[in-house]
Structures are given as C-alpha cells and as structure tokens.
C-alpha cells in the first residue's frame, strides 16, 4: 500500500506542476505583456483559466494531506525548516486567488482594478518561484536538522543560489506551459503569433535558468548531473524531452492544439522523471549526509493502508468530476 500512496503523491505533484503551473504561467505572461496588449491578454487568460483556477489547488492539497498523514517525519521536517518559503508560497496563492476574484467579480469597477491586476501578476510569479525553491531545498542537502542557530536552521536551509536558480527555472516552465496552452484559445492570428513569441521567450528563459541550475549545482557539489545522466532512465527521459521540444516547435504554427499541449506536458513530465528517478525513494537530502525516505520514513502501516484506500476511492469521484467540469465549460464556450 505504501507504493500506492507514493504513486498518488507523485501524481498530485505532477498534476499541480502541469495544471497549476499553466495556471500560474497565465499571470506570468500577463506580467510580461506590454500595456498595449494587456487588456486582450487578460481577457484570454480569464477565458482559459476562469472555469478551473480553483480546482488546480486540489492537487497541492492532496500532496500536503498525503505527507501529513502518511509521512509525518517528512512533513514535519519540511514544515519546520522550510516554514518561510512555504508561508510565502501560500501567501502568493491566497493573494492571487483574491485578486483574480475581485478583478472579475467586483461590483464596482474603479482604480482598485489596477491594484488587483498587479497583485494577480506578481503573486503568479512569486508562487512558482518559491515552489521551485522548496523543491530545490529538498534535494540540495542544505537542510540542517542539527543546527542550533536561527539562520542555518530556518534561512540557509532554503535561501541559496541553487534554490534561486531552480525558482527562476520553475517560473519559466510555468510561463512556457501557459503560452502553449493558450495558443489554442486565441481568437485572432495576431494573438496566436503573440503567444507563440511568448512561448519562445519563456523557452529561452527555461534554457538559460536551467543551465544556471546545472552550473550552480556543480559549484555547490550537488550531484544533479549524476542524478540525471548517471542512469538509463534519466538519459532516455532527457532525450525524449528534447525530441518532444523539437517536434513542438516544428508544429507550433499548425492548428494542432491538442498535440501541442500533449508535447508540452510530456516534456515537463520527462524532466520531472529525470530529476526524481535516481534518488527515489529519498525525498529529502539532509546536510549531515542522511536522508528521509518515502519507504523508510513512512507512517504506521494501518495509517498508510487507510490513506491508500481513501485515495483510491476518492479518485473514483474526483477524476470524473474534474473531467466533467472541464468538458462542460468547453461546451459552454462553443
């Protein structure tokens, strides 16, 4: 049953990165849009993410519940030593959701709309940035559970160049996903070309920030290169991601919306697989050389079994309902 729970944990993180990432990316694209096109971009963004923007956070909630119930040692370590970036990330989610609701459903349209727009845009950037920092902290070996001073225990456990680089890489990936997903929702050829250009810029940003991640990992002696290129799965995954990206750019001018989304999602999936495969089931690397494992640090056997059954039964209700939500709004928009 432990592996069932781990599968749901990985799937929830994966889905949050894909769906929630594209959600955040919409705000990132709006942030980097000129004033001339912001209104049109805002309208497109609302039409695309409006129906499901709240549903995307369901995957984050599932991941947190799985860690809390099934892996209490891992949950405790993360919530203590990464308390600050977790709070900032949650603050970004709350601020973004509030701004999104008020700027579209506020009864009075006044100058506050400008403030709501800014909050939405910057919180869309901040949230995936700190999500990337949190992810980097779990594998960088910077968490010092034996520290007795505030800075080493609660600041330097996540505030480092590797985490910052991964944060910017996550932002670029989210922007890239959003641009690819929105291309198929544009009304005019001009808008389509604008979002294709944004996808290219975000892709360049991902390449640059991704290169920085590798350089900083090497300088800080984090074995990222070995994790990705030291095994067959990692090499195959990165090769597949590269090939899918080439196909994506060769077909992006064509009206093949579904294919583009599949290719973008597949690329991100392969990157996530390549990064996590080598050190699985270790999920947190500690500064003292120890680690926290999803197998060795799992909760009580009965708790894991109950959680696994709850997830299996819950998925029978959640997944069809989510599909129907997306389907109904697509039909409504036609």
UniProtKB/TrEMBL annotation:
GO biological process, one term: aerobic electron transport chain
Chain ranges passing through the membrane: 6-32, 53-71, 83-102, 122-143, 155-181, 201-219, 225-249, 258-277, 303-326
Enzyme class: oxidoreductase
Entry keywords, A to Z: Cell membrane, Membrane, Oxidoreductase, Transmembrane, Transmembrane helix
EC number, as in UniProt: 1.10.3.-
Species annotation: Pseudopedobacter saltans (strain ATCC 51119 / DSM 12145 / JCM 21818 / CCUG 39354 / LMG 10337 / NBRC 100064 / NCIMB 13643)
Topology relative to the membrane: Multi-pass membrane protein
Family stated for the protein in its record: Belongs to the cytochrome ubiquinol oxidase subunit 2 family.
Entry's Gene Ontology cellular component terms: cytochrome complex; plasma membrane
Intracellular or extracellular location(s): Cell membrane
A Pfam entry, by short name: Cyt_bd_oxida_II
A GO term, aspect molecular function: oxidoreductase activity, acting on diphenols and related substances as donors, oxygen as acceptor
InterPro entries: Cyt-d_oxidase_su2
Top-level taxon: Bacteria
Protein name: Cytochrome bd quinol oxidase subunit 2 apoprotein
